[in-house]
Amino acid sequence: MIDRSSMEMQVQPQTAARMKCMRRADHAPNGAGVTLNDVAAHAGVSRATASLVLRQTGRVSEATRERVRASMSALGYVPDRGAAALRNHTSNTVGVVVTNLANPFFGELLHGLEKSLAAAGFACLLVDTSDDPDAQDAAVRELRGHKVAGLAIVPATGTTAEFPASLQELGLPFVFMTRYLPGTPAPYVGADDVLGGNLAARHMIDVHNATTIAYVGGPIGMLSRENRIGGVKRAMADAGIAATSLHEFPSETSGAGGLQAGRELIDSGLRPDVIICHSDSVAFGVYRALRLHGLADDIAVTGYDDVATAALWEPPLTSISTHGTELGHRAAAHLLEQLAGGNPQLVQRTTPEIAVRQSCGCPAQSIG
Amino acid sequence: MIDRSSMEMQVQPQTAARMKCMRRADHAPNGAGVTLNDVAAHAGVSRATASLVLRQTGRVSEATRERVRASMSALGYVPDRGAAALRNHTSNTVGVVVTNLANPFFGELLHGLEKSLAAAGFACLLVDTSDDPDAQDAAVRELRGHKVAGLAIVPATGTTAEFPASLQELGLPFVFMTRYLPGTPAPYVGADDVLGGNLAARHMIDVHNATTIAYVGGPIGMLSRENRIGGVKRAMADAGIAATSLHEFPSETSGAGGLQAGRELIDSGLRPDVIICHSDSVAFGVYRALRLHGLADDIAVTGYDDVATAALWEPPLTSISTHGTELGHRAAAHLLEQLAGGNPQLVQRTTPEIAVRQSCGCPAQSIG
DNA sequence: GGTAATTGTGCCAATCAGCGG
DNA sequence: CCCGCTGATTGGCACAATTAC
To answer: What is the dihedral of CA B275, B278, B279, B285, to 10 degrees?
Structure first.
């Protein structure tokens, strides 16, 4: 009995290995298709032991541990994440859902997010929703199928409170980034929009004596736009400026949107003291519109997000720094803490800062 | 015997279903954990039939097909991609490997890539290598574990010919994007760099009578930089300009890199007729350096890639359009055709165009 | 007889070849 | 021939069982 079983033990794996070699001999002479079984056979241990070594758990002697590791690298073993996910009902994957990859700010955000998640051993499954809530629902569905451990989401414009509710029902950890939703308190990481808008307006009112303000950019109904405008209004109220001195020109959040909204503003005949823009991209577009009409030196402009090129702009763009990359890191940390079973501060509103440059009318800094 | 087994057959699924309900009763009252088996039971068919309906293959009567579909949506079924991948040895996933997510050009590229892949039913597993070949190797390893169907890669600076060779050995379909490697002919989609550099230089020489040129930006050893410079040199040679009239200032491909290289150029005392930049970001940084020294109106500048903000720049930046989003679409198409078993044109070099604006010295276009 | 080290076995969800009404 | 089912298979993990000292 013992002899026979031990023979089987030896023969089985070898046969299996040979078949595999034959099956894809010229396709993949190296690591492709090497299974934990192959590793175990090569190291002369059971699949279970090999698994323990792989996951660095359980009690395995240092000697065999070393031997198994050697076999792994010798065979070029790559663990099959799908198989693990099947068994665990979860994977080392996080769904990342954004509204527009072409937006430079999201690039910076993603950069930070990806770095932190990768460092923790998670891979990013990326989806671009084109700011469409239906596409967002579809994305979540698909990502659920991939058994993502969690979701980092820039919610699409028009997302309702049902969305976070449904995620909660699913028991799927998530964080919203940079845009939060009205009503339901949901996990969130982003800069304080009210403060950001307030910061911009206060600077323009207090140091530049602005009395008429235009808020340009951001689609109607987007809460972050509402909030930033709220911050602007508060600054105006605090300074005793009538609310009627604020004019809104919503637009798509992009350079093209800013250009068009800027034209509309100019065509309207309005000549505000400042144009507070919803994003740096919008500000870039607005500047183009102003220059086309020779107005660039007459009206102050501020941006939002402080993207890398803002400081290089002519004139250097005064902007509200939301520190996109850092925000990405924090969103990752938020999600990772949830995944680790902790419960992090639900809503993390970072405090934005104003990066004062020249587009607001301030003098150039001396260069060190 | 028969009775017993048939009883087991009936009881098993119900018991399993009940256990599932209990296990996560308050966690996920809806679709989470619904399996194809549950769908089959609900529709009164076998798992296999349900599978056929799911994948829209095989011969299933329209009646049962409809019934199964109804059960799927009734239960909120979400197919488990991991299980499918385990069985198929491949997933509906593509690995996307880039060097720096924060680079706006890659944002545009990814936008196109993701859209096309998503339309074909593939999800993107995203990795940012920080332009490090070792991180790139690690990324491929990890992505292999996820059983990606293919790879879309912006190769890191310093990648050797061994890299595509190893991918080929693995039998893993891939495309390189925007940067190609010396030597080995590998699947590639990107704009023709020699032509791009040539286009910029020719314009400056032919219409602006430039005789001294500086090429700024791009790290040493990057082939796309070498090629663009090659194109510049050819234009110079064609015009009878000595090769010594070309000066190189390599830098990191970013605004910060451009700013620093621009300063170095200015400090060197050189005052070329044109500065041809390796990317728009670099051009933005160079412009800042020029403005700091009051030189912005004296030296012409061209960018590369024609990112969205290039047209909004002051002065509007003359650039080489490589059509990032379109490139992303084409890279996706290349990969998808490989996956479909076809063999697309291995190296697809799109022809870049020059977007003539004012930074080169051309007059402003009349506005329609 | 107790403890560290290792192993066997059943599962996870979907797919596919082969079989039968 | 059309339709649908059975049973085996995929790679890794968890738990109980088992060995060795």
So the answer is: -50
Closest chain B residue to the Cα of A116, Cα to Cα: B128
Specify whether A43 is located in the same domain as A114.
Answer: no
**Residues lower than pLDDT 50 in chain A:** 1-29, 367-368
Which residue places its CA closest to the C1' of nucleotide C7? A46
Q: Which residue of B has its CA nearest to A315?
A: B314
Domain residue limits at B13? 2-79
> Whole-model pTM?
0.88
For residue A153, what is the domain's CATH number? Answer: 3.40.50.2300
Query: Is A265 found in the same domain as A288?
Result: yes
What is the domain count for chain B? Answer: 3
Q: What is the pLDDT of residues B170-182, one digit of tens each?
A: 999 999 999 988 8
CATH number where B49 lies = 1.10.260.40
> Does A331 share its domain with A254?
no
Which residues in chain A, range 33-72, keep a C-beta under 7 Å from any nucleic strand C atom? Answer: 44-49, 52, 58-61, 63-65
According to DSSP, residue B365 is labeled: P
Contact A288 B311 (CB under 8 A): yes
Q: Regarding beta strands A93-98 and A150-153, do their DSSP bridges make them parallel or antiparallel, or are they unpaired?
A: parallel
Q: Which two tokens stand for residue A284?
A: 């870039």
Nucleotide whose C1' lies closest to the alpha carbon of residue B5 = D6
Mutate to test the interface with A, among B143, B151, B170 (most CBs of A within 10 A): B170
B355 part of a folded domain: no
Q: What is the pLDDT of residue B29?
A: 40
- Is residue B63 located within the same domain as residue B34? yes
Question: Mean pLDDT across the stretch B348-360?
Answer: 97
What's the CA–C1' distance between A57 and D13, in Å?
Answer: 12
> Over pLDDT 90: what percentage of chain A?
84
Mean pLDDT of all residues in B4-10: 33
User: pLDDT by residue (tens digit) across A233-275?
Assistant: 999 999 999 999 999 999 999 999 999 999 999 999 999 999 9
Give the model's pLDDT for residue B32: 63
Residues B204 and B318 in one domain: yes
Q: How far does the CA of B158 sit from the C1' of D15, in Å?
A: 48
Q: Kindly state whether residue B360 falls inside one of the protein's structural domains.
A: no
Domain edge (last residue) among A29, A63, A79: A79
Residue nearest C3 (alpha carbon to C1'): A59
CA of B52 and C1' of D2: distance in angstroms? 15
* Buried-state track A66-92, b at ≥16 Cβ within 10 A, e below 16: ebbbebbeebebbbbbbbbbbeeeebb
